[in-house]
Amino acid sequence: MRIVIVEDEAAIREGMVKLLHQINPQYEVVGKAVDGQSGYELIRSVRPDLIIVDIRMPDMNGLAMIRKLQEEQVRCKVLVISAYSEFEYAREAIELGIINYLLKPLKISELKKALDKVDQEIRRDQHKEYGFSLENIFMGCINGQLKPDAYFHEKTREKYGFTVQEPAELFMVWLGNGYEAQKETAKGLLEHVADHTVKFAANIRELKGWEMLLMILYRQSGGESQLTYFEKSVVPMLCDNLKKPVVCVWRRIEQLLDMSRVLQEMRKDLEWHLCSPDRTLIYREAIQKQQIVPIKYPLELEDRAKRALREKNWEELVLCYERLYEYLVQETHLPSQIKESLIRFNWSLVSSQKEKKEESELHIQKILQRIASADTWSQIKQGMVEFMGILDYSEPKLEEPSVSDLIHRAKVLIRKYYNQGITLEETARKLFVSEEYLSAQFKKETGNTFTETVRKYRIKKVKELLVETHLKMNQIAELAGYSDPKYMSRVFKEEVGMLPTEYRKEVQ
């Protein structure tokens, strides 16, 4: 506890310093003054926790000093020590809120009791002050546990210039499985937005369980909405600087105290991303304006997919799924209907394979449940990768049993189409994953990049044609997927260490 002593008698003043140290060595006397005027200036400068002050002093008495400090909002605890017990002094002290009043000569036991009381009051006030931190205020609103009273509202307005009864706007940024990798970058971008405006104050919270960041816009200038600014400027900026998935949701609330309930609604609004283009800000007014069209389930496409599955025609099956996705986004449908259609389509394919259904039913149900609760296409496609691994239409895993079904199917595609200019983008599309994800997993599981693997298959094919045929270089290049025989020769030499013609001679 930091203490200032204001006393005109030197002996009492110095004796008080020694006595305080004896009572509690943790007490720190940060200043001493001989009259009210010098005490006033000292206290304004050092801002102590406690003032021990006499009443009758030259220039300015102790009560006048306290009154002046209070008028200037200098808040300190006060312990009055006086040789006078007149009623007027006591009444004036009470009016100033001074409840600690001791008469000279002091009794050590009474002083110790008074100091303990003040210490407890300071600790209690500090605890309350912690409760008034912006972090605690907003977290209380988020989790719905804040129960403010009139004093709370008064204190919040006094300290921060707003109350939790005022309206605000919420901006939610969902990062999905990229949350941990991108949250600091996203947070920095949002902080930059907040730092370069005077139209609102902002507080950014991490909602880890939801894989998203929340930006709370409060103390808005003139109550002006920032919806247009965020829709036209902030959302595109985030999408340009962050990797997918990035989904943004907006909502205005009547008072900050409604935040817990409104966040649940915003979390539900996230699924409207299924009906919206990328880089779109999702908000309630835009949702309400959409013309919703009921889905007519594509039975003909389902039958076509079943036939492809029976015939183990993988390309046709993938094409059916592509047509299904295109159909589901042609018009605006309810997100729940989109997911119901996907689940029905998938279940119909599994049901057509009875042995597969019995073998993997629990796994299939978990995948379909994830699709049912999905909010974005990236979540749906993650489930689809697992689901398609269950369907029995790919080549058997004769090698590399350690690689995942996804990479196995990618390698099957490479083997089939390496000589037709297959690309990473095309392969990712056929496997319902992003290019970035497929590229990273391919390198992680095989040790080679996608491009390196395609190149190795082509070189292998060139070797076979050089040894087993008498074809010319331009014919071999065409069969191996090279449009230029000179380029093929250069790549072959980089890989093998000799030109194709030299290789043919050496082997023969």
TrEMBL record:
PROSITE patterns: HTH_ARAC_FAMILY_2, RESPONSE_REGULATORY. Residues 408-506 form the HTH araC/xylS-type domain. GO terms for cellular component: cytoplasm. The modification 4-aspartylphosphate is found at residue 54. Keywords: Cytoplasm, DNA-binding, Phosphoprotein, Transcription, Transcription regulation, Two-component regulatory system. GO terms for biological process: phosphorelay signal transduction system. InterPro entries: CheY-like_superfamily, Homeodomain-like_sf, HptR, HTH_AraC, Sig_transdc_resp-reg_receiver. It is found in: Cytoplasm. Pfam families: HTH_18, Response_reg. Residues 2-119 form the Response regulatory domain. The keyword Hydrolase does not apply. Its main location: cytoplasm. SMART domains: HTH_ARAC, REC. May play the central regulatory role in sporulation. It may be an element of the effector pathway responsible for the activation of sporulation genes in response to nutritional stress. Spo0A may act in concert with spo0H (a sigma factor) to control the expression of some genes that are critical to the sporulation process. PANTHER family: HISTIDINE KINASE-RELATED, TRANSCRIPTIONAL REGULATORY PROTEIN HPTR. This is Stage 0 sporulation protein A homolog. It comes from Schaedlerella arabinosiphila.
